[in-house]
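Help wanted!
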Amino acid sequence: MARTSSFVGLAGILLTAALGCGGSSPPANNPGNGGSADVAEAQPRGDVAQVGAGEDEDESTADLAEHHRHHHHGGFAAFVAISLEQLNATPEQKAAIEKIRADMFHKMEPAHEAEKTVLLALADGVAAGKFDQAKLDGAISQLSTASGQIHEAVAGELDQLHETLTPPQRAALVDKVEAHFEVWHHSNGAEEHKERDSHGGQLAMLGKELGLSADQIEKARTSFEQSIAGVPQFDRAEADAHIKAFGEAFASDKFDAKTLPTKGDLNAHMATWGITRTMKFYEAVTPVLTPEQRTKLADSIRHHANYQHQPAAS
Amino acid sequence: MSIMTKALAFVIPAALALGTAGEARAQIVVTVEPPAAYIATVQPEYFEGRPVYWYNNSWYYRDHGRWSYYRSEPGFLRERRSHWVAAPRREYRGGNWGGRYHYRR
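Answered by r_m:
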């Protein structure tokens, strides 16, 4: 009997120890066991230049990167306007938000038209295998001027937006504006390294679209990187300062867009860098293309040029 | 073989097996923050006074620039997510892969 009792005790200790080991694991993600305090910090994704901004995540993210590679005219105001459809607004808010969004796009129209002129001139150059540089430079100059006026023009809409949104929605808008900038910045980098090909890089995308050979891609890569190196680079620090200032101001109870320290210059710098990068990219690619590939690419650029902002889905 | 020996022959392997399973569950799982392109295109939900985003089967939120996630799905968010399936696509595009953002040239 005594030996049996010893055995029961020993078995109990062994089983308890075993179950105790299992119980030391982190809690599983069980939807039935809600508990908002059970949170953990996520790991940063690492250097965006290396891993990308998620353009290769799915169809939507690839579409977004393609958008940002061709449309630079609205700068941060465009990031705000694009984000408004993705705020999960209440039915009561939707009409007011859609009006603000439409008004913002309307005020960006002069810059949008200037950008369209550049893209159509680029499409013509790709088709002909020869670019009208004077026309392109003139159109880029007009785009820069028009983009520089956007911040002032939409300041009233930004103030209305602040009044319309709840504090959590304002935070979501700040998250999204920052995310759009990250995608725009990564999609419009000064390099098209080979490592980017597997993370939604533009050359790899174009290679698929036009059926480019590896030799064509490498020649275009070399030409682009030499060409873009001679262009004054976009100053990311200027944008980071704006994101910080906008984020803090928009999260507070009172907001006045006209008091933001970064005004129209940043949008002008973004538009100028972005469209110049677009131009340099297509100018570098064009000489390595066959006539059929040039025709196909020119059509694609014309489609980008004719992009129209759509009303939000109801 | 005594009763004790027979019993231990059963209990020790069982204990070792359970112990091994416990170690497997205790392995470190690295959870990476959502990419920017995803945050830009997904609809948030709102919980505890902040926006939260469903990504890779967890809810993420940002606090002072750092991303965190709920290890256990809060009941409110689980209930909200259930609407994504039932509601029309245009109402809750956040639940539709590939349908969150369309670049309409």
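OP: Thanks! One thing I noticed: Chain A touches chain B through 76 residues (CB under 8 Å).
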